[in-house]
Design brief:
Layout: H1 5-33, H2 38-64, H3 86-112, H4 116-146, H5 150-161
Helix pairs in contact: 1-2, 1-3, 2-5, 3-4, 4-5
One fe (ii) ion is lined by residues 18, 21, 51, 54, 99.
């Protein structure tokens, strides 16, 4: 079944949203790279890579459905945040909540269009958003707990720096 036009348009919009998320996280990495928090810089950079992966997952899915990928302009990301790491992580949480709402809207549209293949494909993204929101929220809670204690902040930074890249997301189909 060809992908409905409305769904194709919405998936293209989501490719842009994920690339924008990629760029926003890269902006946070730039910020942390100008502070002593190099662990958070690494964490943000890995997160940026994940977001790029999300965009490419949507790209491959659209391509597999014989759709047409549209690429558009991104906004320059913010690269300066407050000295306390909470500022960047709170921004990240707000961004993740926005992406969750975007995925939910996309899911609702696919449901309305009875585009079952897209619905199944999007289930992975719904789960991913649950994970992303909970990871960032935990970081915020721990940062709030340590407050301005340098030892605590450096400990969290150190831990964030040990984050490793996730296994690549499963391919959308076609054995890719
Ligand atoms: Fe994402
Ligand atoms: Fe995300």
């Amino acid at each position: 079944m060809p992908i409905p036009n409305s769904v194709q348009t919405a998936i293209n919009a989501q490719i842009k949203n994920e690339l924008q998320a990629h760029y926003n996280y890269l902006g946070m990495a730039v910020h942390f790279d100008s502070t002593p928090y190099r662990g958070f810089a690494k964490w943000m950079r890995l997160q940026a890579t994940e977001e790029y992966g999300h965009a490419m997952k949507l790209y491959d899915f659209l391509s597999d459905r014989n759709g047409r990928v549209e690429l558009t302009t991104l906004d320059a990301p913010k690269t300066t945040y407050d000295a306390h790491p909470l500022d960047a992580f709170r921004t990240s949480f707000a961004n993740e909540q926005l992406v969750t709402a975007q995925i939910n809207d996309l899911y609702e549209l696919a449901q309305k269009e009875k585009d079952f293949a897209t619905l199944q494909f999007l289930a992975w993204f719904l789960q991913e958003q649950v994970e992303e929101e909970s990871t960032v929220l935990l970081m915020i809670e721990r940062l709030e707990l340590v407050g301005n204690d340098p030892a605590g902040l450096l400990r969290l930074d150190d831990e964030a720096g040990r984050r490793v890249a996730e296994a690549p997301a499963p391919a959308s189909g076609g054995g890719k």
